[in-house]
Design goal:
With 296 residues, the protein is of the alpha+beta class. The termini are far apart. The N terminus is likely disordered.
């Protein structure tokens, strides 16, 4: 397809950017100039032409586009296109060929990536193209890619993957500037962390595994297993630790009775607080109060 003077930035290696259920694939990148001869063509991938210097004239379907520096065109599969050979017109541009996975292959729990690709397919129709000015400084990523390929320092391949993904997202943000809000429970959050948030917010109540399960839409058994696997400690033991620690605030800042403090932090009785406090702190509540009041 191309015959041109070799410039530094060139990579024809298929690079997989792993997603949860599929891969976003970068097929080819290259920096080109006015010596490039290109024929009109089409393929099954998406292609970005990004003008770095001068003016790039390109034919896309029946439309002739003139891209100035920091302007780009994003071309969908099946859309015939090709740059116009003008050897006397100085220019430098970057081509980036990639393939986006089908969002139907993602599971419901993988809603962030699924939503990302669904929105792209909704906004960018087959056999179409989008052109405009880049508002997201993507040329900096082109320069970063060039540096990585030139220096090839330790981990450069991984850095290139990051630059690839950031370049794609940066370009797409010119087409899709905002994303609709997604409900928090649809994000596939770390449920173990969500459990701790629920405990922090409700430690003063008589909460059970069933209450937590209802809040995050799983079974009580799943709550118990998930929490133990992630933190190495049982839900109930952790809840007791929270309550003992929150009780310290009242012990230091008030002269409330132990019975009242126990009720404020969710214990069924003062005896439960007494027992757990000594077990966890190694001293009695009265000793703790005496030590900390003497330090004030």
């Amino acid at each position: 397809m191309y015959h041109q003077k070799q410039l530094l930035l060139y990579n024809s290696t298929l690079t997989k950017l792993p997603m949860l259920s599929s891969d976003l694939t970068v097929n080819y990148i290259e920096m080109l100039d006015s010596s490039c001869v290109e024929f009109p063509h089409t393929h099954l991938d998406y292609e970005i032409y990004y003008c770095l210097e001068g003016v790039l004239n390109i034919q896309v379907k029946d439309t002739r586009l003139s891209l100035e520096a920091n302007h780009f065109v994003l071309i969908s599969p099946g859309c015939i296109h090709g740059s116009i050979y003008e050897p006397n017109r100085a220019k430098k541009y970057f081509v980036f060929v990639f393939n986006i996975p089908n969002p139907q292959g993602f599971k419901k729990s993988e809603v962030v990536e699924k939503s990302f690709f669904e929105l792209f397919h909704q906004c960018f129709l087959p056999d179409s193209f989008f052109h405009g000015k880049d508002r997201n400084h993507c040329r900096r990523l082109v320069e970063a890619m060039n540096l990585e390929l030139d220096e090839r320092k330790y981990g450069w391949e991984l850095m290139m993957r990051n630059h690839y993904l950031n370049f794609i997202i940066g370009v797409l943000r010119n087409l899709i500037p905002t994303t609709p809000a997604v409900k928090e429970n649809e994000f596939g959050n770390n449920l173990a962390i969500e459990i701790t948030k629920f405990m922090h917010n409700n430690y003063d109540k008589n909460i059970t595994l069933q209450d937590v399960a209802n809040a995050i839409y799983v079974t009580p058994r799943h709550v118990s297993r998930l929490f133990l696997e992630y933190f190495g400690q049982s839900f109930q033991k952790t809840l007791s630790i929270y309550r003992v620690n929150y009780a310290k605030n009242y012990l230091l800042d008030t002269d409330y009775s132990i019975e009242k403090i126990a009720g404020l932090v969710g214990f069924a009785s003062a005896q439960s607080l007494y027992k757990l406090f000594r077990e966890l702190e190694g001293i009695s509540i009265s000793e703790y109060r005496a030590q900390n009041h003497s330090n004030k």
